[in-house]
Amino acid sequence: MTFYTDKQTLEDLNLLGKFKSNSVFNIFNKVKTAGGERLLEGFFRQPLTDPAAINARCATFKRYQQMVIQLPFTRAAFDRAEAYLDTTVPANYLLVAASVWRKKALSGITRDQRYEELYNGLLATVTLLAQLSAFCAQVKEDDEDIKLISRLLSDNRLRDLKQVSTLTVTDVIRFDHLLRGKMRREMSVLLATVHKVDVYIAVSDVARERAFGYAEARPVQEHIADIKGLRHPALRDAVANDMHLDAGNNLLFLTGANMAGKSTFMKAYGIAIYLAHMGFPVAAERMVFSVREGLYTSINVPDNLQMGYSHFYAEVQRVKTVASAVSGGAKLIVIFDELFKGTNVKDAYDATLAVAAAFSAYRSCLYIISTHIIEVGEALPKVNTRFAYLPTVMEGAVPRYTYRLAEGITADRHGMMIIEQEGLLALLG
């Protein structure tokens, strides 16, 4: 089973993006190798749906978090060694020797730099292998990946390599043939394993530094999402909230004023669900969830001028996409923020009420739907719906937002008070 999401959801939750300083990817992107970065991106693009696999990956991150270790090289040094090992040489020793002597000769005659590049790449690799050997010897915990690195480095063919501090031309020939020829497969496995360890260390360091917790995955049939102390991972001092949905109460109907924190809360929930399916740490104290088949959000739906879509029509199309998946039997997490903003209040009321009631009848999905139209909540069926709001506390004429989830439907109606406080009408007066 594949975990399905789409571009709109990824953008709503700001999950991906190496060059976005505030993306969730970049929160965890503290790796020291290019291969580790590629592996990390692969984890982000392919969430898991097998509870055992999710829990196993969580256990790995927990173990590394307790180990508190660091890889013994800089990214630049590893890149030099990896660039060297990524190229091949002939399996025949004489052909390697002829190639090296030719490079050496040309370096003295024509200032050809290929021998120098070969020498520096080999020396960087020799240094890296020595550093990794020392690193493995220092790690006391029983970790399969680190044990694999240690076994590869214990190969008797590498014995002479460990004694080298400078390299003669004969050394360059012998070790180049060994590392990039005879042991090419072993070196490839070594690099791939270092990439994995790099990701494990980076992600567990982030979890430790930011006090993230770990989620426990349950079978899909349980239809549960229970989170204690949920917060947005990008906010250092975020207010934490508890969140619980199950098949008996599968819809959270969320109200609250603008700036009260509804969108941030919903994004925090969506991000936690996504990271939990990756087996990654989550910004929460504790989380138990049943795996889902996908995640859909509708938070920042753009219009589409090329296709002639208004904002309202784009919203309708988005809801239609989700409805098709839900009615087809998919077990999803669905997050709708301020449905049907692009139409008049009467139509928005009717549509929000109808859509919320219709979706909630599909008990194998879990939903959060927010709105400003609090009258919808009063008309919704109460049998499988949880009502919550984010309060606004007025201190005189100044609103203060607690960001603390409360049970019920908001009675806050402070829009005109804020407009008057900001002097908007006076400016036009």
> Separation of termini?
61 Å
Mean pLDDT: 89
Largest sheet, strands/sense/barrel: 6 strands, mixed
CATH topology category name of the largest domain: Rossmann fold
The proportion of residues forming helix, as a percent range, comes to 40-55%
Strand order of the largest sheet: 6-7-8-4-9-12
Series of secondary-structure elements, N-terminal to C-terminal? HHHHHHHHHHEEEEHEEHEHEHEEEEHH
Structure description:
- This protein is of the alpha/beta class and 429 residues long.
- It folds into 2 domains: 75-207, no CATH class; 212-428, Rossmann fold, CATH 3.40.50.
- The protein is 49% helix and 14% strand.
- The strands form 3 sheets. The chain has a 6-stranded mixed β-sheet with strand order 6-7-8-4-9-12, sandwiched between helices. A 4-stranded mixed β-sheet has the order 1-5-2-3. Strands 10-11 form a two-stranded antiparallel ribbon.
- Strand 10 and strand 11 form a beta hairpin.
- Helix 4 packs across helix 10 and helix 7 (114-138) packs across helix 8 (144-153).
- The longest helix has 27 residues, at 184-210.
- The termini are far apart.
- This is DNA mismatch repair protein.
- Residues 249-429 form the DNA mismatch repair proteins mutS family domain.
